[in-house]
Amino acid sequence: MNKNIVTIDTKDTKSKEALIRKIQLVNLKSLKKLDAICKKYDIQYWAAYGTLLGTVRHQGFIPWDDDVDIQMLREDYKKLQKVPVEEWGDDCLFETGYTDDIRHDKIFGRVYQKNTRIQSYGDVEGWRDPVTKEAWSTSLMLDVYVVDHVPDNEKERLKIFDEYRPRAIHDYKPSKLEYVPHKKGLRGVKERLKMHHMKQVRQAGPTPWKDIMKTLEQEILKDTTGKRIGSFYTYDPFVYNTEDVFPLQKMKYEDMEIPVPKNYKQMLTDMYGDYMQFPPEEDRIHIHFIYADLDDGDIYVIDPIPGSLGQKALEENKY
Question: Has this prediction a pTM greater than 0.85?
Fold first, then answer.
């Protein structure tokens, strides 16, 4: 199908806001699919991070944000992994850190709108598909963060937080994709040395990202008897009692209701302080993509920098 090219000026705030709303509605489809599957397979999840903030403060998406974040306990995450791929339909796809899919670059799970394609400045400037050598791109996604019972022993918990978690977070993506160092000075030297190391890691085996996942999970699952829960898959420093999360409550989100933690007010205060206060206008990021194909018949090009999908689309549209 021939698609219409829509160019958006980087200074055109109204057009960018309209595009953000379109992206939000596509991601909302992923959330509705996930919600339906979780209800069918008795899987509990709850709104997290910006999605929790949006639920409480805006009853939906934060107007200048477009992604969706949810959390679930590992036992529920395992259930989600076992859901037949057919349940996700023609548009959605659930992937974990063990997937070979090149679009997946994180250790946590994601629900992708698989017929979409997005690209940012960082994707073009910093990452390459190791096979095609082209600038990397991915699809619109919903983030699924795993929450584990953490060791009651603070020393053991911090060992995983401080030693294994950063390694997994930072090493996963360059074990799968080629990084293009672009920083200068001493930081540039360190970048190039690390990327040389990660190239060796990629060459040492067919799927080094799976080895990274196994190592992290082995450490996480050594002690699951703790009374508190937290996330080893992000830099989230907070841990909570299960009574802070359960029983889950329902709150309005756009045109549906989604689960939120029981003690959501304290969690939001921990993360954002006065969470009902809007940030200054200059701190509201209106869009971070430079290219978006939302599978709606249009391709949105914000900045067709060299090597980007936007540049390629405009060149092909000439003929």
Answer: yes
